[in-house]
Amino acid sequence: MVRFLLNRPIAVSMTFVALIVFSVIVFRTLPISLLPPIDVPQIVVKVSYENASPDAIEQNVLRPIREGLVTLNGLEDMESKAGSEVGTIRLTFDYGTKMELAYIDVNEKIDRLTNSLPTDLSRPQVIRINTNDIPVVRVQVTPRPGIDHAEVTLLTENVIKKRLEQLEGVSLVDINGKKSNVITVQTDKDALRALNLTEDHVINAIKAGNSELPGISVEDGQFRYYLRLATRVDHPDDIKRLPVRSDDGQVVNLGRVAQVQYDTDKVMGYHLYQGEEGLVVTVHKQAAAKMNELTPKIYEAVELFKSDYPQVDFDITQDQSMVLNAGISNLQTSLLFGGIFAFGVLFIFMGNYRTPLIIGISLPSSLIISFLVFWFFDISINVISLSGLALGLGMLIDNAIIVLDNITRKRREGLPLFEACVGGVNEVMSALISSVLTTLAVFVPLVFLSGISGALFFDQAVSVAAILGVSLLVAFILLPMLYWLFFKNKELNASEEDSKLYLSVLKGYKYLYGKIFLHRKRNLALLFLLIPLLLAVSQILEVEGLPPIEKMDTLVAVDWQEPISATQNKLRVQEMLAALDGGFEKAESDVGVSQFLLFEGENSLQQATLYLLFSDQEEKNRQAGRLSDWVSENYPKAMLRLEDAPNAFDQLFSSDAPFFEARWKDLKSKRPIPSYRMDEYLMTFPSQTWERGPGLQQESSVVFKLDLEKLALYGIEPNQLQDKLKKLFGNFNITDIKRFGEVTPILLKEDQVNFEQLIQGQKLRGKDGVEYGLHHFIQFDYEDQYKFITADKSGVYQSVAFPAGEGISAQSQIRDWGYDRQLNIDFAGQYFRDRETIQQLVGILFIAILLLYFILAAQFESFVQPLIVIFTLPLGIGGAFLVLWLTGTSLNVMSAIGLVVMLGIMVNDAILKIDTINRLRVKYSEKLSLSKTQILDKAMYEAGEIRLKPILMTSITTMLALMPVVFSAGLGADLQRPLVFSVIGGLTIGTFTALYFVPLAYWFLTPKK
């Protein structure tokens, strides 16, 4: 095939040019995202029910919804959590479930359940989770002093939001921190009493003045007109002019007995930027959009907003495109330095400029053509797929060096240029194909990991397979053709092929080779002894998910653990920020209940989240300690959590699930166990290192008890008292003013005073017309109640959580403890998921090793020689572990990817070394009349000399190309540094292994007779 193609250089050249042109066109159409568009198999149902307790939300809302959703197809798990005024149900499906259909199914079932839910409950919100739901940027909108917040809310909703949605590539614009205007009516109790009026008279007058006549029409000859009442109200002044009629017929204007004005609606949550109230607009991209093109458009739009709306301040925070740009920058750096160092190393070792130039053409060509595979498999350009390309670059350089070196060697043996190109490629073709297949055999099985990890590895596996497949195509077709074109008019000059530096290295290699082979058994035993010693280093390495990135931002989550209002929560957050004395560059806070459509976390009035950006790491650590001290000193009940601000990866993989959790249910009552009894139970709990789960956390509440006997004695109906309480403490909506799609509620307002004073000042009218104080019919008490009620598929449960490594050994004692108290005990947590993942990884690793063995057995036509390659792997892994330990680097996702890169290159070198020995043995056995032992020694010696140059050049080029990352700073360098240490450590040992361990092991495993 190579001979056929080399005879048609113009056709081959034009074909590659066409592929590159088409690849460039395809590249421009590929979506660019931070992460692959993965459907996370979760759906969240959110419920908002004003003035409802956790118990009321659980019994009246969440339980019926859970029972209705339990039959969903593919439902794996269901968790619900009821809090004050809010509740959530998180549905987890089997991975592979079509989430579009599941989302429709959930909505249909909730629509059917609507009639069984409370009538005053707004429809539950269904949120589907996707990696594209992570916002690209957050736009801060802050009203300037003296500007009405409600007006800015209208501007943001009606103008800013619309203009951002019009940008190409934007899928959704979400807003938090909105405020709206309402009309409040506050009655004058003394004036009402003097005029023999009640609040009901005022309410009825407003309802009558805002009444509609829907569907009524009148005829006028041949015409028909729809009837509209002209008495509708549109403004507080209209309401003040409404007539209020008493039972004895006296009529007064409503303005005489009530104060009517515009006011701000009850606020459940706030957004703060730099400590000031404002709004935040999150921008989400479409799946097919290019993030690197969308982000500049958003920045440009915000600059226009600043000039168009000077009454508002704008700013952009938490730009997620920085991670993507870091990935692209790393790939560019790898290509640039890879090319420069490849050129330098080849020039030093070979002494001519043509060979490096050929590699300089082949590298970008391979990379560009790889994007055709992206287009075919519908893969976006994202951090995961880019890391796959970076992973394959080392192998790409490796293949190019091997092919060019082999062609040069064939020319040195006296073959003509054309025959050298053909023979040089054919000789290493099967070995290179095997090395690529073995690399894929190690990596591709990871696609079969369950969950999001497997989905992420799919993008990486496709990108690795793409660049390795294309690298073979380039190595077998383009490289020999370029070599033929560059050298067809150039005679072979030995001085240009081997530099003086290389000749001195070759001399040193031969000397050490002779020394090692003088004591073969001892040296092989020492190398085998190194394997467990180096692998044992893994036991002292810290294991992490992602490498620790030096972040200048912090996320502060605070739960005040007190039943405070959103306004009080806001004031406390502002106090926290003031305590930092401006030691931060940017600060934004989401306080209380979030208004985001896509918010799938907890909503609570007493919780707040702060994002703080600092100038440097030292300032960040100093202010974090200062903040913790201030909170513990001023609000000792508060629970504070400080952590690095999560990037997109953290948000995707983070889980609120505890490491290990013991759950129990009371199967008799199917309700939470009362707190007084639960506290007794927990005193004898068989472990000391636990903390209360959400279902055991308590908060103070006020309990009203009605005196029904007194109510009956004075002729007052219980529902009359309940209506009074709703008007006092609820958000009593009299009616709504509707015009042109805008709704303005008219609310009854009471004095914002202590509830005890409010009760003391209110009266109820009995059947005899006499008014009685409200406090005569109500008794109240303070009680500790459960803050949340948690439940799963089978019902309500309570739990305790354990830190990592605790509680697992006490499972049998915990079961006995529950059995003695007639509790059904179950265990859950991240521990079980991690154990399942480890079991999958062990199985996948076993399959990968089997695939590796089968491929090598087919290549070498031997069942023994593949073991040599397999035994080289732990030496390289051990070398990587050693460098990771010496540099203080953890074992994480990036260092694991580095291990795969290094193993691919190591396997390549070992395969080619063994393949060369096999070919020389066959060649010498046919031409020389020597013993098998002599032929074996001669073949191994010459194979080492032949393969020395490509092995050294590949290892040195790869290590030098990655070295700049070690000395770089920034997010990209922090991510890639563990990968670099893995590759450098593995290749340092791996190069020595390929040069000396492979021939030693080969000598012992090959029969001599």
What this model shows, in words?
With 1009 residues, this protein is of the alpha+beta class. The protein is built from 30 helices and 30 strands. The strands form 7 sheets. Strands 1, 2, 3, 4, 20, 21, 28, 29 and 30 form a 9-stranded antiparallel sheet that branches. Strands 5, 6, 13, 14, 15, 16, 17, 18 and 19 form a 9-stranded antiparallel sheet that branches. The protein starts with a helix and ends with a helix.
Helix content: 40-55%
Question: CA-to-CA gap between the ends?
Answer: 38 Å
Here the CATH topology of one domain equals: Multidrug efflux transporter AcrB transmembrane fold
- Structure summary, number of beta strands: 30
**Gyration radius, in Å:** 37 Å
Main beta sheet strand tally, sense and closure: 9 strands, antiparallel
Assembly level: single chain
Structural class: alpha+beta
Low-confidence stretches: none
Question: Any idea of the CATH class of one domain?
Answer: Mainly Alpha
Net shape:
elongated
CATH superfamily grouping of one domain:
Multidrug efflux transporter AcrB transmembrane domain
Average pLDDT across residues? 80
Number of helices: 30
**Any idea what the CATH architecture of one domain is?**
Up-down Bundle
The fraction of residues assigned to DSSP E strands is: 15-25%
